[in-house]
Each structure stands twice: as C-alpha cells, then as structure tokens.
Amino acid sequence: MEYINNNELLAAFNNQTDHSIAVYNPHDDSIVGYIPSLSIEDINHKIERSKVAQQEWQNTTASHRATILNKWFELVTEHSDELAQIMTLEQGKPLTEAKGEVVYGASFIKWFAEEAKRTYGDTIPAPAAGKRLMTTKQPIGVTASITPWNFPIAMITRKVAPALAAGCSCIVKPANQTPLSAYAIAELAYQAGLPKDLLFVINNHSSVLVGDLLCHHEDIKKLSFTGSTEVGRALLKQTADTIKRTSMELGGNAPFVVFDDADIPAAVQGAIASKFRNAGQTCVCANRFYVQDAIYDEFVDQFVSAVSQLNVGYGLEVDTHVGPLIDSKAKDSILALISTTLQQGAKLQYGGDKLSGNYLQPTVLTDVSSNMDIVQTEIFGPVAPVIRFEDESDLIKQCNDTIYGLASYFYTKDIQRAFRVADTLEFGMVGINEGIISTEVAPFGGIKQSGFGREGAKQGIEEYLNTKYICFGNL
C-alpha cells in the first residue's frame, strides 16, 4: 500500500463508507481503494446539471475549449507516473505498459484540442438563382460513455476529448473493476479549468442499472460504448426507445497471418506485441494465428522461443512483461477454453501452467483447426492458437468466417499480395507487417458485429456533432 500513500491522485479513495464500491488489485486481490456507489437519484441530478452546463459550454469558442484541453493534456503528462501506478494497481498491466497507455490516452486530448477548431461546415452550390445553401456543425448535447476495464484511461480520453472539443458534456461510467483511473483523469481535467458539471464520473454497484438509465434518459443524446458484443446488443435495444445516437466498439477475433514470404523474425516480434500486450486482454489483439505450411515449423519454433522469454509477474516489479488477468473468473474461463481445445485435438506447445492467483502462463497451442471452439471465441487472455494453411484464397475465407470485424494483421514481402489481402479482409482495421496499429491520428473501429462508428482521427469528433442544413431564399 506504499504506492497509494505516495500517490496524491489516490488520496481521496482511502475511506470506506456504507455505500462504497471496493476496488481490488488483481495481483493479490487486496483492496486498492473505494469509490462511491451513486443512487439513481444522484445520477439523474448529475445529468440535469450536465445539461445546463452543456448549453453554456457549446456557446464558448473552439479556441477556448482547445485551451482547456491542452492544459488537461499537460497535466496528464505531468502526472503520468502517478496515473500509471494507479492503473497497474487496479488493472494489473505492467507499469511500462501502463505508462504507454497514459501517453496514448493523452494523445487523444492533444489531438482533439486541435480538431475543435476544424469542425467546418460547407457552402453548397444552389440549384436555383436567389438561394444560398450551407451546413453547420453543432454539438449533440449531453453524452454518455460506458468504458471497459482493460484500458481504463485511453478508452475514456478517446471518447471524452472529442465530445468536449465538439461542445458536448460527458457522463462517464467506467468499469467497477478499474474506476480509480477514471476519477484521477477527471480530477486533472478539473484542475485544467474544465467546469465540473461538464464531466461526471458515475458508478453504482449495479452496472446494469446504470446502463439502463443512460440508455433510456431522454436528455442523453449520444451513447458511446466499448465492451463485448453481447452487452452492445442489449444496449442498442435499450437506446431504441429514445432513438439515441450511438457508437459501438465491440468484440474482436483478429486473425494474424504469416505468409511464406514473410520476414519471420519480424512476424514473431509483431505477434508477441499484438498477442501478449495487457496479458492478451485487448479487443484488437491477435486471437488466432494462421501460418503458411512451408514456414509453419520455423515460425512456431521462433515464436515459442520468444514467448518463453516473457516474464510473468506483478506489474510494479521491474522486468515484468505479462501481468495477471483481471480476476479469477477470467482465468477460469481461459483455462476451460485451453482444456477444451486440447480435448479437440490441439497440442500444447508451451505454457498452460496454472500459476497462483490470477496469473496464467503465456500459452501456445499448435495443430489447431478451424472447427475448434477457440477459433470462434474471443479469448481475451495470453493464449495463442496456431493454425496451418496452404492456399491464400482458402485462408481469406477462414479469416472472414467470423461475426467479428475489428482488427486483422498479416506479414508478407509481396506488395501485390499486400494490397490484395488488405482489400479482401472483412475488418475495419488492417495491420500489414505491423502488430500494433492504434494511434490517435487514424480512425479506430470495426464492422460486422464488432460495431460501428470511429474513434480518433478526424472522424472521431464527427461522432459528437450534428450537421444542420440552412437554406437562404429570396436573395
């Protein structure tokens, strides 16, 4: 607990009350801190305040909003070490990864501070004399964001920064497992000069209850959700009653393809980065590996050798590469999936050992076939199933044979193949000879049942703007 005592941003979360939600460290299930469980009446009151504040905020200049966002960026950067410690304590990822996420999360604040000044309208050539046609962009209003536990800062800034830049206000519901990062990042926004009624962080013991409220509340004009496809379906049904604007970043089943002309060491390095970052608990991480027959054995040998060098341990310890899973339920689910895959005929090439607590050794499974359960399951853990393939056209069919369409990756030196495969993969994002593709300057999002809408890039702020058409006549 020495880290908490030395962390100013956590000082407010050491006191337990009758209505507190305890936050646990996945390393040893010790309590990191407490947050308040707000009543539905409290949340409704905050939404009312948010509506009033938004109406004032939308009338400020884009330059004013950008100034506050830039100050927020500076404070997040200044407090990056504290934020990273909080994240590691409540989420489990290694401290170096946590620091990387803080930098990544801050990049969206900086990016959208600039995009605030670029929400341009259009002048449209009129179809008849005496008319002038134009469009303007206006903020949607009060927005709600429901964010996951695997990236507790970046998933918030990627939604909140464009909303604030556009002139909206924000109600944020972080995961109950990792809310401290949300409260800390919001506190820095207040210190930057953001009026507190523009950004509320809310939690309740029942996430379902809060989700229901946010979906049905008529004053909330936009809901952004990052999480499972199953929950996304339920939220979409609930938002239908108020015809709410939504964006959904849902589950993934990313293929990682290594063609026989690929740079194998580079592909191995990319595979490690994509698969085992955050202990495999990312929606865009490689979920199933397809390796062409001619290089299958060579790739597996090098891949296993690299995986065996990964150190599993507490995220605050030096040289830790893979931290714990978020909780025992997640670990039990992955162990059951490994067991089923082995029963279906796969071979355990490396790992699979049950470590103490919520830890799981990075695992490589070979001789996996496309009809096994693991191929159609979002693993969300440090398990890499490797599938052999021969023909490119059949490979594409296997990659696309999923309800998901978020991220995909492949390695090749053939430029013609690179464009051909990229065009035929049914995914919203494609990494070619690269295992990490997320950046604030490019649109992030999927197709099919991985959701819709885009975050980051110039598209990200459009999710929080309405286009108004204006026609001047009799000129």
UniProtKB/TrEMBL annotation:
Coiled coil: none annotated. Keywords: Oxidoreductase. One of its GO terms (biological process) is gamma-aminobutyric acid catabolic process. Its EC number is 1.2.1.79. InterPro entries: Ald_DH/histidinol_DH, Ald_DH_C, Ald_DH_CS_CYS, Ald_DH_CS_GLU, Ald_DH_N, Aldehyde_DH_dom, Aldehyde_DH_Superfamily. It comes from the Bacteria. The active site is at residue 249. Residues 17-470 form the Aldehyde dehydrogenase domain. GO terms for molecular function: succinate-semialdehyde dehydrogenase (NAD+) activity; succinate-semialdehyde dehydrogenase (NADP+) activity. Belongs to the aldehyde dehydrogenase family. This is Succinate-semialdehyde dehydrogenase [NADP(+)] GabD. The gene is gabD.
